Amino acid sequence: MAATNTPLGKTASGPTVLLNLLLGALALGWPWLSRLLAERTGGWVLLALVAGLGCWRLPSGYRRWAGVVLIPALLLALAGHATLTVLLWPVVINLALLGVFAWSLSHPPSIIERLARREQPDLPASGVRYTRRVTQVWCGFFAVNGGLALATVLHGDPALWTLYNGGIAYLAMALLFGGEWCLRQRIKRKSAS
Questions:
Q1: What totals of helices (H) and strands (E) does the chain contain, helices first?
Q2: pTM of the model as a whole
Q3: What is the dihedral of CA 103, 105, 111, 117, to 10 degrees?
Q4: Intervals of the chain under pLDDT 70
Q5: How far apart are CA 147 and CA 119, in angstroms?
Q6: DSSP string, 104-117
Q7: Is residue 50 helix, strand or coil?
Q8: Residue 49 and residue 58: Cα distance in Å, rounded?
Q9: Closest-CA residue to 96 (of 56, 132, 54)
Q10: Which residue from 115, 112, 72 is spatially nearest to 95, judged by alpha carbons?
Q11: How far apart are CA 39 and CA 108, in angstroms?
Q12: CA-to-CA distance for 135 and 97, rounded, in angstroms?
């Protein structure tokens, strides 16, 4: 297969694109796979898959941070709590995203500003303020979503855990993303008038 351009300007071969699609599907299907496999394997298959993919696919600069997550997860699993480790994964992801977004607020430019500058390199000061506010909103989202994901683990109902982490959380994220996009379009129209 021919190489294709990626958002970062690098090229990716057909197998790499397919692998990235597979990884995306795995990430989105995590709650459903977790429920299916954790009941049958105790969580070890998923933990091994995540550890392997994390070590293989993460850019080298992020691998040390993956250890911050993977080592405690491995220790918890080795202590006999592999299924709990799998269930806590959405909590960990939300905490990691909260950390990255919050860190970018104290070490500008913010994550959202960096994304905005890909489309508009000469972002005005009002755009910088707006992207900072959006980054703060996402921080709040990740904090609340992570807390609710933890509540589903503590509640102990696998059906509730799967419903929230495999459906409701994605819907909430899509609504926030879509709502922000609509607001941004409205602000752009007002500033153009």
A1: 10, 2
A2: 0.77
A3: -140
A4: 1-15, 19, 23, 38-39, 42, 50-70
A5: 33
A6: HHHSSSPHHHHHHH
A7: helix
A8: 13
A9: 54
A10: 72
A11: 43
A12: 11
3-state secondary structure of 12: strand
Please say whether the beta carbons of 69 and 99 come within 8 A.
no
CA distances from 133 to 45, 69, 140, 179 (A): 40, 28, 11, 14
Between CA 193 and CA 188 the distance in angstroms is 9
d(Cα 104, Cα 24) in Å, to the nearest integer? 24
Q: What is the pLDDT of residues 84-135, one digit of tens each?
A: 888 888 898 899 889 989 999 999 999 999 999 999 999 999 999 999 999 9
Q: Which two tokens stand for residue 94?
A: 């939300």
Spans of all domains in the chain: 10-82, 88-193
